[in-house]
Amino acid sequence: MESMPVNWEALDSLVVDFANCERLFFLDSSSSPPTSPPISPSSSSSPSSTPIPSSSSSSSSSYRSRLLIRQIRRSIEAGDVDAAIHHLRLHVPTVLDDRRILFWLQKQKFIELLRRGTERDRDLAIECLRVALAPCALDAYPEAYEEFKHLLLALIFNKEDQNSPVAHEWSERRRFDLAGLLSSILRAHLHAYDPVFSMTLRYLISIHKVFCCRQGVSSPISDLTERLLLEDRDPSATPQESLYEAPPFDEVDIQALAHAVELTRQGAIDSLRFAKGDLYQAFQNELCRMKLDLSILDKLVHEYCVYRGIIDGVSNSPPGDCSSNIECTSSKLSDGETSVNNADAEGFPESYADVISIGESRFASEVINNHENCSISDVNNQETCYRRLRRSRNYSTGHRRRKRWRGRVEELEYSPRSSVLGIPKPEVMGWPPRGSEDTIQEELDCKNLSFSESLKNVEDHKYEIILEMRELACKGMAAKVVEEINAIDPDFFIQNPNLLFQLKQVEFLALVHSGDLAESLKVACTHLGPLASQNQDLLKPLKETLLCLLKPSEDAFTKGTPWPILATSLQVAMGKKFGIEEPQLMRIVRATLHTHNEWFKFQMCKDRFEQFLKIDQLKDIDTPMSSNPAAKALLDDTANGSQITICSSSKMQEDGGSPQASSGENVCDENAILKVMEFLALPRADAIHLLMQYNGNADTVIQQIFS
């Protein structure tokens, strides 16, 4: 699991899309993430029949719809059914045309009025019975009137009586079930689905858990996945039609959905019926029922964005530190999600910049006066170090500004006063709120202290050095990268010879392409030759590289490792030297992609949803890497306890990411497989194994099981 190749640039694209959809970045048109552009549709071989979630999910309407759903959920869970009905009538009145929903809401309102216990509320509950609940019970659904009569017992039996026939109606769990059910209905009605990355993570983790449980494999990321993906799910939305009519759906779709999201066959049929036969909409409905702890997810995304240089921040800051820019307070959402309210204030960038400037000036004087040394190998290069740190800061705040982390801010709040550092949040996001000057000053002091403390220590700027080296490598400045790293740590390339060979190889190819043959041969004689003589595995790529001298216009740049791969490999190797741990999100993605591959090998089929969730792009690796021994050696080096450096445009498999079906599937007819799966309620792999025992005859298998 720890050596699974991953296209980190594809993950960058998904993470940035997620952060934009959830408004985790401050809106700043002048800033852009220092990552590669999002993967174009042409890089995927998805068929036209497979819809791919588009960027429309990040639209303002989708974001607002998700906030509205959370608002209604919280209202119901707090027992304020009137507020939920008010929001529905105001924003989505057509939902209340469904008499079932109106009946469920009025039932809960009746119970909540009785729960308050006053005479006035009891009178209001009886009025609710007469005016709203009884009329709804007549035509909501066939069983509604019986439920209505049963509910009348709540007027007699006390809520503390756990043995009463209406103890279930009194249970506060009913609130959460109704809130979850309504969320499922509204999500489908408004098409307010979570960002693709969020759904992809749910899907991969759920498969990872099933695979590890079934195969008896110990998960290296169980500490994260257990806290991130909760066991509880929202109730599924069911259609109004009869559940006993024959399903008008393809059995292939039914089985694919059932096994993708762990449903019974009837559950998959109901889900497809609710989605009017749209397999991918049903799939999204079911995925979004799974609950993620958003507080943990946001921290993982923040850590990853800092590591990849997408946002400003210090990588190793502890989670409660104000300077980490992750969170200062968090409020737990009732559905297992957590909203992170960021302490960073959007309205005072000048003061924020002043704090940084003061800290940098103080840091500069300390470096000069105290002769600080940032060299990893204890070589005294304080002048070079300071020059690098100064340029790193200018670079990050100059022509290529990074995004600023905002955190999760709920702009629609159920509670009129939501505490963010003790400040009542206004109805619409704004900063600073009136009358909060003291609190603003306290936060400025917090930022001033945290930044000055972190900037005092050169260790905090190792991360900026690594990011700058990666940036230079992405630009193709191989000679500059080698020069700067040697100035920082002369031992670095002694310990990473394959990386040096890769950098010098692409430098050689660039010189050949530009026509400077004399300088290119100098690079080959000075660096490539000696490196190859010390490592026999590098002789073959050296010979292939030298062949480019014969056809410089055609072969240059085709033999070397792509710049993004080199840049990420460099970041990994330098991170190891500096003691910077890789983000936990990388561990999760690498492990879950591995088990995704293994699971579908076991199922002997392809994953129908991997292109829809862009899993195929995460597995999208560079073909020349496997044929280039130097690149493969580099891959092996970086795979040892760290991330794999794969960032390219070709596929792990020729037609996608998932493994092909094994030879066993060729023996069995697809209809026979589906028949055994349907009648015996078996997973695909078990059905195939049974069929192979009985020469592929489905009838014989079924007879043997029931005989």
UniProtKB/TrEMBL annotation:
Q: Where is this region: Disordered?
A: 29-61
PANTHER family associated with the record: RAN BINDING PROTEIN 9-RELATED
Q: Which domain of life does the UniProt lineage start with?
A: Eukaryota
Give the protein's recorded name.
CTLH domain-containing protein
All copies of domain CTLH, residue ranges: 65-121, 462-519
Report which residue ranges the record marks as coiled coil.
Answer: none
Entry's InterPro entries? CTLH/CRA (IPR024964), CTLH_C (IPR006595), Ubq-SigPath_Reg (IPR050618)
Compositionally biased spans, kind Low complexity: 41-61
Kindly state a single biological-process term from the GO annotations of this entry: proteasome-mediated ubiquitin-dependent protein catabolic process
Write down any Gene Ontology CC term: nucleus
What does the organism's lineage look like at the top? Eukaryota, Viridiplantae, Streptophyta, Embryophyta, Tracheophyta
